[in-house]
Records
---
Amino acid sequence: MKKITIKNILSKKNKTPIVCLTAYSAITAKIVDKYCDIILVGDSLGMVLYGMKNTREVKIETMILHAKAVKMFSRRSFVVFDMPYKTYTNKITAYKNAKKVIKLTKCDAIKLEGGKEIVGTIKYLVKKGIPVMGHIGLLPQTSSNFKVKGKNTLQEKKIFKDALEISNSGVFAIVIECVLEKLAKKITKTISVPTIGIGASRYCDGQILVTEDMLGLSEKYPKFVKRYTNLSSLMEKNVKKYMQDVKMRKFPSAKNIYR
Ligand code: KIV
């Protein structure tokens, strides 16, 4: 089993779609590692696992705990640590935090949300040997709403400019979140690094979804999510069955006891 490298990821541009999912736990990592090129330990865990209103409350210590578990159970995929809100406010803070994260979790890279305002930080991190993935379009840490981006000319021009500047700053890939199909297509055609879409159409070099979303284990589902199954209802059905078994003294049965 060969470990995925940045070289592998870059070589897939315009050739093979790059498969990415999120993971926050050992068991999820173990499963998705078999099928994904990139696993993202996303700060979406704040909302998905901890019921937070947004990702701004997520602490770096929480992310480190989850990332350690994910990295320990990922043998093949390239694992990316999503830097939480306010942990990369300037290049010095960003480097201090990124270095700590990589040292403690052994993740392969970090991800930063933002456009041209973080170009200096990315260049600094890359110069210092930290691999960085960009994230443009809808930026959950700072966006005032979760609406599709690129609908007006001003927004479209800004996101396109962000894509150009971020792609020239040394990143190995860029996540494009929730933008119009034509904008994602234009960015993917123009920049030299792979684009990873989430709600950004099939015209990206790869796709990413939050694993809990695609498995039906989340509270809310944006339009861009395809739900492959409904684990919430499966869980409920089986928890109910367990409750009935306990109440009727059907569980534990002879199979489940020590004599
Ligand atoms: O936090 C996250 O899960 C992400 C993905 C949605 C790209 O940033």
---
Amino acid sequence: MKVTAKAHPNIALIKYFGKKDEKEVLPYNDSISITWDTFETRTTLETAKAFNVFLNGHVASIEDREKIKTFLTYFTNDVSHTVVSSKNNFPTAAGLASSASAFAALSVAANRYFNCNFSEKNLEAITRKGSGSAIRSLYGGVNRFNRNGYVTRIDASLEEYRLLVVLISDHAKAVSSRKAMKHVVETSPLHKAFIDTANEDSDALEKALLSKDFHTVGRLSEKSALSLHGSMLAANPPIHYLSDAAFRVMDEIVKLRRENREVYFTMDAGPNIKVLTTKKDVRLVANHLKAQGFNVLPALKPSKEGAHIL
Ligand code: 2P0
């Protein structure tokens, strides 16, 4: 028996950061993301003599193995003859949403492999327990992860959208999102402000996406990313993922905007910068950043493809 599923990562424009219920993975605030093409996780479940987990071709750490084993207990009470192999075609744990595509692919694969046939909503409730952001990679396009723990799909037209990843480091981050989130909730005086802003801005972002108001989409995305990093910097002790190079990229983007380019930045719990721009401006923006010496990956397009069995 062998089942393989594929999922793409999503990048949040309004960020999720903090759980009001850690067991159920219920977020304090709504978040909204776009699922992007090209980057993908492929996860295979197959029958073997003993349970094992391979991540990107290597035997997983004990911590990852236990996390996956616990996650699979939502689908079965016997994992003893299952081998999980998961591969990303992009850097893992570097703030590029690898846990989102990984748990979305694993959920969909396990649902089929163990013959669970869970409904969409049941699968959402399970998937978010693997990783909150993974719930948004179950589907393509724009997805809103609501405070109630479920997803609303937003039917916005995304043909003009492009995303550039400026790779500052592809090393796995020192502090995981999950740990950073808990620490920020417990110690940052700015976390409450982050939540309030995110909830208000989610409605505004949804409207802007539906009315094709790219300027407002970009402005709200930058605001959410900066507010996220502000709340992390105000934690005790502070958490900082961004280096000097990251701030230089942000400066270049602000400069390009002064030249009337449609371009905005967003950052997650990692060192890399994601640049939200348009089909019209993407080439110029990429060339400008490359000319400044930055490592810019080929542009991504929004993907309509949700997590699915291959
Ligand atoms: C997001 N991040 O909305 C935010 C922005 C990182 C910064 O969701 O603990 O790996 O597994 O629910 O989903 C990354 O956190 O955290 C994340 P858990 P997850 O994309």
